[in-house]
Every structure is written in structure tokens, then in C-alpha cells.
TrEMBL record:
Coiled coil, from the record: 216-243
Keyword annotations of the record: Cell inner membrane, Cell membrane, Coiled coil, Ion transport, Membrane, Transmembrane, Transmembrane helix, Transport, Zinc
A GO CC term attached to the entry: plasma membrane
Membrane topology recorded in Swiss-Prot or TrEMBL: Multi-pass membrane protein
Membrane-crossing segments per the record: 249-271, 283-304
GO MF entries: cobalt ion binding; cobalt ion transmembrane transporter activity; magnesium ion binding; magnesium ion transmembrane transporter activity
One Pfam family in the UniProt entry: CorA
Compartment annotation: Cell membrane
Similarity comment: Belongs to the CorA metal ion transporter (MIT) (TC 1.A.35) family.
Lineage top rank: taxon: Bacteria
Protein name per the record: Magnesium transporter CorA
Length: 309
């Protein structure tokens, strides 16, 4: 359908079979897209307000006899970067599904491929449900990939490569936290929609939408469990780093204690004053060495005895 056909469809001038609907997908990167939508989509203020509001958490609301959905998704080339999460806005009514995005998204691309492959949808809500399930599938793949990365970090932790593991875990946890915060549907809006759906939404579509949200919740639960696992690994790494730091401080302390008698006696004997003991004695050097060794052995014994206690 070209632009002229889309205008005719939105105005209701294009004949269509009973139950037929159109899916119109737009790229907001084009500056004229929003202006065209305002001119032809109709009075759907909630949809245009959602395009410009600061909060972009995933939700589905009913307004102006249409479903307004804000769906967060990952970019097509997602590589576990927080900046690779973008938003898809949807306006769904009885005859039309309008989707808009700023960047290519993975779930919407899968939905487009399914439509081109010949998959049919009986209602607009069925298409929305399919999109939510595609998003859940993408999220499952992300969780699996993240689990693989956590497994690698755990293996590197066992191999004592702690510093690199800390950086990887921290970055991965930040991505998962942002994914969960943005992708988790708002329970209040979804609860109201499922309990008081629009009159034009079939009961079967409401049930399918409920099932898709339950699947989504299960994936989010897996993501939460993975975050807890990452947190435990970070605590284990922090404990190991603290233990290594304490060991290094202990070694430095021991070196200082053992070197203290040598430094004190060397400082005293090195003074340029008269009366230095054993200065004229033929075995003075070895006597001083014996004294230093005795003090060092006593200091070491005291230090290691306290360590054992």
C-alpha cells in the first residue's frame, strides 16, 4: 500500500472485506512522518503525547477508542550495550495498526518477516499479541546469551582472572537492569486493559494477550534470577579481591617488621660521632650481624605467632 492508499484507508474511502485491517509502519527519523500522521491519523492525542513524553516504560493503554502501546525493544544489531535499546509506538484500532520507530528493531523486523512470509492475522490485536510474543522470544535469546557470558565469567573467576571478570559482570548487569526496567510492562495499565477491554476486542484476543503477557513475565523472572546470579558472582569477586588485598598488606607489614631491626641498628652505627661500639674490635662486624639476626628472628617469631592466633 502506497501513501495515497494509506490516506484513503485512514479516511475509510477504500473498500475492504469484513474483518480486514491494515498495518502501517513508519520511520520517525523522517521529519515529515509525525506531521503526516497528525494530518491523517485523527484525534489520537494520547498516541502523540506518548511520542514525546520522557517515560518510555512498556505499557498498553486504552484511549480514544484505540489501544496505545509503548513497546521497548533492542536494536537489530544488539550487542549488550545500554544505548542499543529503543522504543516502538503503536496505535491499534478496529481497522488499522500504526507502528512508528526511530531505529530498526529486532522484534518488529521479525513480525514484518512473518507477514511477508504469508502469516495471517485475523484481528489487529492478534498482530499486537504476535509482536509481544516476538519480543519475548528476542528477550529469551538475550537471556540465553547473557547466561553464556555469565558462565564464561564464572569460568574465568575459577581461573583467577578477577579484574577482567569484574568489568564484564558490571557492564552485563547494567544492561540487564535497564532491559528489565524498560521491558517490564506496567502492571496497572495492563491490568485495567485486560479486565475492561474495548468492546471491539474479541474475548479470544484478550485471552491471547493475557497469555503473551504471562510468557513475558516468565522471561522477566528468568532475567531477575540471572541478575541475582551476577550479584552473587560480584560479591564473590569482591571477597576475593579483598582477600588478596589483605594478603598483600600483610606481606608488606611483615617485610617492614623484619627490616625494622636492620634499619634501626644500621642507622645508629652509621652516625658520624665518636664512641661507636665495636668500631675497633676485630670481630665487630659479625657481632653486629648476629645482633641484627637475633632481633629479626625475634620480631618474625612475634609477628607470625600473632598471625597464627
Amino acid at each position: 500500500m502506497n501513501t495515497a492508499g494509506a490516506v484513503r484507508w485512514l479516511k475509510g474511502e477504500m473498500p475492504a472485506a469484513e474483518g480486514a485491517f491494515a498495518w502501517l509502519h513508519f520511520n520517525l527519523a523522517n521529519a515529515s512522518t509525525e506531521r503526516w500522521l497528525r494530518d491523517h491519523l485523527g484525534e489520537v492525542d494520547a498516541f502523540f503525547d506518548a511520542l514525546h513524553e520522557g517515560s518510555r516504560s512498556t505499557r498498553i493503554e486504552f484511549a480514544h477508542d484505540a489501544l496505545i502501546a509503548v513497546v521497548n525493544d533492542v536494536l537489530f544489531e544488539f550487542d549488550f550495550e545500554p544505548s542499543q535499546i529503543a522504543t516502538l509506538w503503536m496505535c491499534v484500532d478496529q481497522r488499522t495498526v500504526v507502528t512508528t520507530r526511530l531505529q530498526p528493531l529486532r522484534s518488529i523486523d521479525r513480525l514484518r518477516a512473518a507477514v511477508k512470509g504469508g502469516e495471517a492475522f485475523e484481528t489487529p490485536v492478534a498482530l499486537l499479541t504476535h509482536l509481544l510474543r516476538d519480543q519475548a522470544d528476542v528477550l529469551v535469546q538475550i537471556v540465553r546469551a547473557a547466561t553464556g557470558r555469565v558462565d564464561d565469567v564464572e569460568d574465568s573467576l575459577l581461573a583467577e582472572r578477577v579484574q577482567r571478570s569484574r568489568a564484564k559482570l558490571g557492564a552485563l548487569r547494567r544492561v540487564l537492569v535497564r532491559l528489565r526496567r524498560l521491558l517490564a510492562p506496567e502492571p496497572g495499565a495492563l491490568f485495567r486493559l485486560l479486565n475492561q477491554p474495548p468492546a471491539w476486542v474479541a474475548p479470544d484476543d484478550v485471552q491471547e494477550l493475557r497469555h503473551s503477557t504471562e510468557e513475558f513475565s516468565a522471561v522477566l523472572a528468568d532475567m531477575t534470577a540471572l541478575q541475582e546470579r551476577i550479584k552473587l558472582l560480584q560479591e564473590e569477586i569482591a571477597a576475593r579481591v579483598t582477600e588478596e588485598t589483605n594478603r598483600s598488606v600483610y606481606v608488606l607489614t611483615m617485610v617492614t617488621v623484619l627490616a625494622l631491626p636492620i634499619n634501626m641498628i644500621a642507622g645508629l652505627l652509621g652516625m658520624n660521632v665518636g664512641g661507636i661500639p665495636l668500631a675497633e674490635h676485630h670481630a665487630g662486624f659479625w657481632i653486629v650481624v648476629a645482633i641484627i639476626a637475633s632481633f629479626t628472628v625475634v620480631a618474625g617469631w612475634l609477628a607470625f605467632r600473632r598471625r597464627e592466633d
